[in-house]
Amino acid sequence: MGKFKRVLVLEVAEAKDKNPETEGGKYRRDTPWLVEAFRKKGVESDILFITNADTAESLVAKYPETGFLGRVNPMDYKCITLNQYVAMLEGLEKAGVLLGPIASHMDRLGSKMILYELKDTGMGVEGVLLHKYADMSDPSKNEVDRILPAGGPPRVLKMMRGSTGLGVWKLENKDANTIIMTDAYDQSSKELPRGDVLKAFLSLCQEDAISMPFLPLIKDGEFRFLLSKGKVLEIVHKKPVDETAFTATLRSGAVYNILNLEEHKAMVDRVEAWSIDIKSKLNDLPYWWSVDCIEMDGVSGNQIPSSNPGKRLVLSEINCSCLGLVADTSPEAKIKGMRFADMIADICLA
Fold this sequence. Notes:
Layout: E1 6-11, H1 31-40, E2 44-49, H2 56-62, E3 66-70, H3 82-94, E4 98-100, H4 103-109, H5 113-117, E5 129-131, H6 133-137, H7 143-147, E6 155-159, E7 168-175, E8 178-183, E9 189-193, H8 197-202, E10 209-213, E11 222-228, E12 231-239, E13 255-259, H9 265-282, E14 289-297, E15 311-319, H10 333-349
Parallel strand pairs: 1-2, 1-3, 3-4
Antiparallel strand pairs: 5-10, 6-7, 6-10, 7-8, 8-9, 11-12, 11-14, 12-13, 14-15
Helix pairs in contact: 1-10, 2-3
């Protein structure tokens, strides 16, 4: 049966991510699928709501021979803070009973800082810059000129954490004194005096940030690779609502299409090989995570070719903070979600 006779999937009762289709509307949509998948592998499994009364030590003592899998969106809750949840994960990892997520993975991969750290890998892009909060806060530093040089091509400014485009701004020069800012969160645009851009950005983001070149081929779409550890389980092509959009989120109206893995095997193989670069930096890989890529023209050296000839993949985002198993609401969604849950259970119990 393996190392564990039981797997408990962790949730927070007061979280806002519950699905009405689950029993009593109490759970995330995909948590019961994972429980069912573990049971099919011959281990007991159930859902456990955690609170600040729980610690790694108390859970290990109360549930011997048990592995723990977190399905908690990392944030503060009334019943348990983020710091308490992180301490729990770290304690379970130290005890050798954590199936995932590893807290350091959520922290490192969940931050846009990873785009800066991986800029020199096969999926990196030249021109990713790190901007310190202190420099952005000090008008005398003129950090806006480093983010978007006057007369230069458009660039994208990103706060370290956020989802669905929050805190991601496309900046382009209108003239020497005016910058056009487009918000990826709602696709709205406005003109700002050059000296006011960082003041506006820092009203949303009070931390370091990164900037990178704007990738114009976002108009053709974005590839999302869904992985468990180092195995690609699905590729989603996300097509923006129109050619003026610079983000491909469902919120912005993007259309998602599932690609056939076999038809894109060469690209899948290269992405899986690239994930080994990340594993060497992290010592392991998340049990469920996604890698979003945009295309650029030209391929050379260790760059990763797209399935489209003459184009390569450039990393735009990594997500491993309680990513859902499926994003769609079709009748086929549960079938797909159960298939993913089965694969994740196999990989976690291997």
